[in-house]
Amino acid sequence: MTIARAILLTIALALALPACTDRSLQVEMHGGIQTKDIKQGVGLTAKKGSGVSVRYRVKGEDGHVIIDTYKQGKTHKFNVGDDTVIVGLDLAVIGMKPGGIRHVSIPPYSHYGLPGHSDVIGEGETITMEIEMVSVRTSW
To answer: pTM value?
Structure first.
């Protein structure tokens, strides 16, 4: 291999690697939920049956904040798959580790349904969540 060819190959790999890495972090899940990992966590991985503690910020399509546990100074604890939270949140935390941050887009059929919820989530509105995994246990 010539030096020029080696340099071109190195440049091509350097340009392609970030794009490959970025695409691998964006996933479309069951129910039309789209996730993108912003920060990878470390430690025990959340799976169905795990007890998790999360912080999150929920926004409507127009960007208005619906719920912000960061500002409330609270975490939300639940067992993954026990149907105590909206489907979108339940599915979105699977695979996360403590310290991880994930951006999630949740269509209406994976949160409160097409009618929306009260006056805070409009009819047919997709919501976005930024989820931070605080801790993962075998269960609560």
So the answer is: 0.75
